[in-house]
Amino acid sequence: MLFSSLSYLLFLPIACLAFWLLPHRFRSTLLLAASMYFYMSFLPIYGVLLAALTVVNYFLGRDIYSNLVAERKSRAKAALVVGIIINLATLSYFKYTDFAISSWNSVVAGLGPLAPYLAFHPGSLSFPLQHIVLPLGISFFVFEFIHYITDVYKGSKPIGNFINFSLFAAFFPSQIAGPIKRYQDFIKQLEVPRVFSSTKFEQGITMILQGLFKKVALADNLSPIVTQGFNNATALGGGEAWLAAIAFAIQIYCDFSGYTDMGRGSAMLMGFDLPDNFNWPYLAKSLTDFWKRWHISLSSWLRDYLYIPLGGSKCSPSRRHFNLLMTMLLGGLWHGASWHFVVWGAIHGFGLIVNHSYDGLVNKGQGAVAGALKSFHQTQVGTVISMLGTFAFVLVGWVFFRAETMGSALAVLHGMASPMVTSTVLAETIEKHPIFAALAVYAVYRILVHNSAAIARAIPMPVSKIMKPMLPARVIIYASLFVMAIGLAPATASPFIYFAF
Amino acid sequence: MTTMPPPVIKQGATTSAPTGSESWTETSTRPTQSKRNWLQWPQAMLYLIVCLALLEAVFYIAQVGNTEYIKPDMLVGYKPMEGKEITQRREGFAHLKFNSFGMQNDEITLAKPPGTLRIAVLGDSYVESIQVDRQKNYCNLLAADLSKKLHRPVQVLNFGVANYSIAQDFLRYQNLARKFSPDLVILGFRVEEVAKLLPEPTNKLMSVRPVFFPKADGSLQYDNTCVRNFFGCAEGKRIVNSYWLRRYSNIWGVAGNMVQTLMSAGKAAEAPKPGDPAAPKAPTAPTTAQASADEKNVQEARANYTKCYWHLMDAQLSNFKAACKADGAELMLIRTPSGSVNDMETELLLKSAAKLGVNVLQVDKKYKETFTPAESKDHFLSHGHFTQTMHQWVAGQLSTFLVNDHPQLLEGKSHAQ
Prior knowledge:
heterodimer, A: mainly alpha, 3 domains, 21 helices, B: alpha/beta, Rossmann fold, five-stranded parallel sheet, two-stranded antiparallel ribbon, 12% strand
């Protein structure tokens, strides 16, 4: 049941209506049942996995807390370690088993030429792939569980109510692809009775419609262009290679932020606030800034539960660089069990090391060069150059992220480096999809939204009073946005990219 | 669990980024409730008009929702709207405009330019070819090829309409194509044409068709009972009454697609799933012998049906040939490949054609001889229509057939002029 599917369009109003009709004490149970139904609609058996992990983490949390209260810190630590191992082992089994096997098999195959000198045949050391189906959202809810037991170990109070705890990981608006929640924020909202607010409800509807537009009208129209480009990477000329890479940058942003908008909007319909995941990431002025704007809930999780435990930035420069690189490598691997994600992580890791070193040079350095660079970055030209440079770097990273093989990634990069070569690989696919119209509509929408206050001020008072849309007019506007999103959507929908992670 | 009385969340309190709807619901500058009540419906009407205009504009620019091009017609059942511009994305892609005669063709004059060879091609969607760019369908490729080979202007006019039967092709010839004085008429004859011979009560516009029954003297009796019934049914009335919207409104097209998606989703949801008590028992895997026997039974039934009703086809082909002859045009048939096989139909068609002295180009047979099944993905789109590569190949086959094997077919009226 995808957020952009017809079945979700039926499921969500029913869940919302039931939520508001029921008294507060039954709402968590209802949401849990709805969330389990939502999750099991993909593959029922994985509901058992989610339930089992929920039970284990719930009791581990209680155990850690009771040991801390009884001042048995070593036992609490042992329980924490056990919890982290169980969660990571589950994630590793489902996500990385085949990756490990295929990597091992490649190493073994590499020993082939040495076969005459070995006492055994290298092929006998290879293992068959297990073809394990990845449970949806496992990377997200496992991280939420690790956050929970770690924070309990650090002294936060565990969740007493089992239903509320189960709902923390299972809550359907954020279940499959985040945002990765912090339980302290979420449980507070569960415990306080939600009061219906028409303002919030309408904000939720707007968010859902905005997310739907991003997903079906933008990301889904870009998807075939990106696929066509990356599948024919060697035939791409300079312009088309750039186009394919930029199309993917926009696609992944619209796909993921569209999902997040729909999830946050769905939660808002029931009075909940989920953390935001994006803040204009492509306007970042540096790579460090980019990671404060892109997939914020993951980057803050990686910072709190990986980078800082590794030593963070309060250590020697070489150790800090190691911490950065390790965090980004593991962050890359989190996205998928494939080497190109590791390469993507490594690119960002090295980029962050350079970024930190440069910041250190500019901000803490003495002398004319450091001063000149600092002043330059404060100018408008400097800001624009920083933004473009950051985007170009991120774009190169996206090429490795999207390409299924290293060869394909290098072919796209080769195309990007050959601006004079022309090709027509993408022409027909671009013509077939109304992507430019969809982008124009979205750009106008964003401009109007961001300047709504100024526009309202510019309109004379009596007119603005009359024009301020009342409920029937707003319903018409929402319906029009929905029709526009669906109308611009291609005939075949693509699954959300982050569902695969 | 807390025992404190729950704090009430402030109306509208949110931590989210602005979404644009906040200013709509703030209360400070609201007019009084009674004023607002009075204003809300005219305001809604105004917003409705503005939103509809905006949607139409966006869909027009984006070329979406402009897929409807068929209108009901009492004589032939249905036909393309004259001058309608469409963008077809369902299978392949094409943006094209039907000409002022309702043909999938560039604008053309009725009068034939001197020295020009005119070929009229009639048939169903395989002739109509709205899945590829117009210049790349086999009609236009054939025209270009023949012009080059014959060193004279050649016009190949596309009269194809999706899902047309031979009876509808014949009516289209009599009412439209013959006005263009073609020298040669090519009739597309796809496998299973025989299935469109009998009257079929339907509420689907693209299945509404009149039929011909042969009289004792060999002439044809026209019967449009099914067409009249369609015009009288609720769906028929809806389609007739919504003609203006179907023709000019892109929103209507988008809404139609949405309704279609909803209905197909509803049907899919209603269909019993494996494991449901209502679901039909899953058949056990048939043995090779069983499968072969079943296939044999199906083939036998299809062969019997074809034999039983072939006299209707025979009479129509005979009258078609006679009409072309009366107009001084040659008639030939092109049998194009599709997913199914009906050997009996092929056999009877060849017999009828031989009897009438009509040439048949069996492209389906040639295709099987030339290509392996694995190559079909380069030749057929998702719903079985031709790709550009296939159009090129079919045009090549037709050109060879006409220029090398049957040049007499190209010695039309204009050549004599």
